[in-house]
Amino acid sequence: MGNLLPPPVFSSANNAPNLVLVTETWPPEINGVAMTLSHLTDGLRSRDWRVSIVRPRQRGETQAKSDDLLTPGLPIPGYAGLRFGLPVTARLRAQWLRQRPAIVHIATEGPLGWAALKAAQSLAIPVTSTFHTNFHRYCAHYKLAWLRGMVTRHLRHFHNRTAFTMVPNDMLRHTLQQEGYRNVVVLGRGVDTRLFSPLRRSPALRRQWNVGEHDPVVIYVGRLAPEKNLGTLAAAFEQIEQRNPDARMVWVGEGPELEKLRRRYPHHVFAGSRIGDDLAQHYASADIFLFPSLTETFGNVIPEAMASGLAVVAYDYAAAALYVKHQQNGLLAAFGDRDSFIRRAMALAEQPQQIRQFGRNACAAVAQHSWDAVCSQFEHYLDVAQRGTRDAA
């Protein structure tokens, strides 16, 4: 009798299951993972799920909201403002013995994620996971290439102990399957077209950038970090600027490369981190979105830029491969072909009519990609995992 587990706890109001989401990042932290998780959580709650969050305590926080559980954490090296949670297995197990979740979803694979996996499996609670970040591909950018094999094995072992590993596109699904991951399913991404729209374009903001109505503005939105391949972006804009001195480069984001970029390009605009309407205005007030990263699992900024009416230049993988149609709503370079990326950025900047046409086509291309559909797919995977079968088709 001592091995009997307590029954699942459901919302008394609607008999809906309780999901516990375990993550090391959460708003107001600004990154694609936090944004995606926020949308998924909102979507489930709108479907009458009860969702609680387990995450590290953020700077200045004293207590959790509602049913959330805050855990101790430490700063992540090289990621200012982000923390990884400590392995509080016993605390999670005790919490879930008192109030048993129907399912646990783990979004990050750090010590907190491992603790949640161990606690849930010790109680026979179904667990799913998402693969959000190519940490194993980051190693070389932080002089830790020797760790890549170990990190790869760690990630594969972690995810293969969950019912499903959810990834944002088929390309990544195939890559992970080739690397020995099992039960990998695709959970796409949406874009908030009510927020990101060409209607957010701000002549006043462009005046702050000291550009005229027809001067091309190139924008980058994202973390200013080595793994984002920003040297290629800077080289592309140098070529654009040589041909059109009135062009302007706007960087939105923060990170360890910020001060170096500021010193090297004092005439560029460094806008810092932006969110909400402010971020939407920055997107829509530009003309070209350059995204040179080679380490994305998806790249939420691609559909955001397209919804904002920008012409995009990116490498042909992840979100760009899904949404950007070459010579229709943007330009694609072969993965890793730096010279091609720079040539395409230069060519586009010299074609103002093409920039505008690509921008209109880009906005139309992402108009139907709502978060509601993504949340429905997420709910489906959670339901299948609770039933104890891995047939998610």
Report on this model:
The chain is α/β, with parallel strands linked by helices and 393 residues long. It has two domains: 18-190 and 371-387, 3-Layer(aba) Sandwich (Rossmann fold); 198-365, Glycogen Phosphorylase B (Rossmann fold). It is 39% helix and 17% strand. It has 15 helices and 15 strands. The chain has helices at residues 32-46, 89-98, 111-122, 135-138, 148-159, 170-178, 203-208, 230-243, 258-264, 276-284, 301-307, 318-323, 338-349, 352-365, 371-387, and strands at residues 18-22, 50-56, 69-71, 73-76, 79-85, 103-106, 127-130, 165-167, 184-186, 217-221, 248-252, 269-272, 288-291, 311-315, 330-333. The protein has a seven-stranded parallel sheet, with helices on both faces. A hairpin with a 2-residue loop joins strand 4 (73-76) and strand 5 (79-85). The longest helix is centred in the last third of the chain and has 17 residues, at 371-387. The model is unreliable at 1-14 and 134-148 (pLDDT under 50).
- Which sequence of strands runs across the widest sheet? 3-2-1-6-7-8-9
Name the helix and strand elements from N-terminus to C-terminus, one letter apiece.
EHEEEEHEHEHHEHEHEHEHEHEHEHEHHH
Largest sheet: 7 strands, parallel
> Which structural class matches the secondary elements?
alpha/beta
Shape designation:
elongated
- Average residue pLDDT: 88
Our count of helices gives 15
Q: How many separate domains?
A: 2
Straight-line distance between termini: 37 Å
Low-confidence runs: 1-14, 134-148
> Level of helix content?
25-40%
Here the CATH topology of the largest domain equals Rossmann fold
Beta strand %? 15-25%
| CATH homologous superfamily identity of the largest domain | Glycogen Phosphorylase B
The assigned CATH architecture of the largest domain is: 3-Layer(aba) Sandwich
**Total count of strands:** 15
Quick one: CATH class of the largest domain? Alpha Beta
Radius of gyration: 22 Å
